[in-house]
Fold this sequence. Notes:
This protein is mainly alpha-helical. The protein has 16 helices and no strands. Helices cover 61% and strands 0% of the residues. Helix 2 packs across helix 3 (48-56), helix 6 packs antiparallel against helix 15 (341-349) and helix 10 (187-201) crosses helix 14 (297-315). The longest helix is centred in the first third of the chain and has 25 residues, at 5-29.
Amino acid sequence: xxxxxxxxxxxxxxxxxxxxxxxxxxxxxxxxxxxxxxxxxxxxxxxxxxxxxxxxxxxxxxxxxxxxxxxxxxxxxxxxxxxxxxxxxxxxxxxxxxxxxxxxxxxxxxxxxxxxxxxxxxxxxxxxxxxxxxxxxxxxxxxxxxxxxxxxxxxxxxxxxxxxxxxxxxxxxxxxxxxxxxxxxxxxxxxxxxxxxxxxxxxxxxxxxxxxxxxxxxxxxxxxxxxxxxxxxxxxxxxxxxxxxxxxxxxxxxxxxxxxxxxxxxxxxxxxxxxxxxxxxxxxxxxxxxxxxxxxxxxxxxxxxxxxxxxxxxxxxxxxxxxxxxxxxxxxxxxxxxxxxxxxxxxxxxxxxxxxxxxxxxxxxxxxxxxxxxx
Length: 375
């Protein structure tokens, strides 16, 4: 309640505790503390009172913004809010200060949102990668519906609705969808291993490196599918496709039909299939594949089947550079890093604030000017 006397008394007590802690800290530091404040003030070109304000709000000397504009914005925030503590993490990362945000141009706002988006994705990737870190026997407690959204919001000190608004403005995805896109980065790697195993078991296939013998086939046609083979541009050219292209296409469809024959309900369910890739529903997996690979899961499988057949021919020392279908699968050329827990932790610790980005840009501009003046 707004006029709750108990709550008011608790707040007064909390402020007194904070004040006593600051007084005790100052007394402990002694007379040399003022000299230190003046030294830091001279280093940054500001008053010692401003340095004290930063330090009273739990800034370390290395945390004080190097960029003069960002520093003034931080000071304005601390003076206006009259509260102990740094500005929220998301403000430091994005540089979207309430006092200056309305004056930003569209390009400046986009750049700040991009940095916030990348930081959010980095933190979210770590949360997904170490899902069970620090927990014992949590495999059944953290269900397939768990998302790292709450942990990311806590790390960036922002509400879910605010972060969703900013991330959606930049990328078009909300936070759960962004988490699915991160999970989608591992789909191709898992699916490639499964497809290669299936190719070995498909009809007409021997051990890896030995394709079953296939008879001649009419050029420009895929036997059994009733559709003409086309290149990426959508035109059919019998001379360009050739016998090798027709053979590859027929074999792709044979493997696909064999794979499809094993997927009959009720034994097979797309929802359960999606669980194996870390998605709560097939619909979420479908969307993630469209965003990450620009393909549906079925198209991704088909392209990986063709890739496996190409590898088989190349292992035999034969020509495998045929691209009637393969050239269309742009997403197949995307390769995503398989992160270790140590690399995830290092990436999260390396997130740059907007002040650090501005400082780097300023150094580059100064170096460029010095080089031009030297000439």
